[in-house]
Design brief:
mainly alpha; about 70% helix
Length: about 260
């Protein structure tokens, strides 16, 4: 998804002059209430993206204009306006931008609100459905995470991402009460089959499921294959670390904080 900076120059100009939360509230209060809420959300969130990721694109001095705490306020206010005024027609693409911002800020509570807002409009939104469990895990709300996993798999029973993520959780969570090796392996095999055994991260999950079941021979088989076909340097070291763990007959254990980075 690309942010259309040129289309939002007027909104950015307005928000670019808001140095404080108080000033931003004043701008919102004096906006005409019949404005299409999509525009309001896009204006706020585009400015957020500019501040976080590319202020030089529009000649905006991030330090002089806004601070991180104000960015969070803008996102929350934009989402709140969408909920209160025009939730049915709030722009989902803009809210997906908000989700990226929440991750950049490492704020799972904000991410949860964004995902819930998206799902109010479209309960089948893949991105929000698949992200929701990881947010609950980061918040240590494990029962809700399992419920969200079950829902995503129910709605998308052949989707490798839905199957893979649930399998990884059941195989690797440090919460003993939530691990389920048998179910993890079933889901992991389905994910691997759905992706034709061609995705390294999915084979990594399958290896973790085998390891959780004490089958380190197959764990090493699939983690080796994952390493061989992997083209993503960002996960290469993790795959190597997992392989070393299986060589020592140790399954993977992952802290809940690892789910939200």
């Amino acid at each position: 998804m690309t942010v259309k900076f040129a289309d939002l120059s007027a909104g950015i100009h307005i928000l670019g002059n808001c140095h404080t939360r108080r000033q931003y509230r004043i701008v919102l209060r004096h906006r005409e209430r019949h404005i299409v809420i999509r525009k309001l959300v896009e204006e706020a969130l585009t400015y957020v993206v500019v501040c976080l990721m590319g202020p030089s694109l529009l000649g905006i001095d991030r330090k002089d204009r806004i601070e991180i705490r104000d960015i969070k306020y803008i996102v929350l206010n934009a989402i709140g306006e969408a909920e209160d005024l025009f939730i049915k027609d709030a722009d989902v693409d803009a809210l997906h931008i908000a989700s990226l911002v929440a991750h950049a800020m490492k704020d799972p509570e904000l991410a949860l609100r964004v995902s819930q807002t998206i799902l109010k409009q479209n309960e089948n939104d893949d991105s929000a459905l698949f992200e929701l469990p990881s947010i609950y895990i980061a918040l240590k709300q494990f029962d809700k995470a399992v419920e969200a996993f079950e829902n995503s798999v129910k709605l998308h029973p052949e989707n490798p991402t839905a199957l893979n993520n649930y399998s990884w959780f059941l195989s690797t969570t440090a919460q003993d009460a939530y691990r389920d090796g048998k179910k993890a392996l079933d889901l992991g095999l389905k994910a691997a089959q759905a992706s034709n055994y061609e995705k390294a991260y999915i084979l990594s999950t399958l290896a973790a499921a085998y390891a959780e079941n004490g089958d380190f021979e197959n764990a090493l088989k699939y983690i080796q294959k994952a390493l061989e076909i992997n083209k993503d340097e960002s996960i290469a070291q993790s795959i190597k670390n997992e392989m070393e763990s299986y060589k020592q007959n140790k399954p993977i254990r992952e802290d809940s904080n690892e789910w939200f980075k």
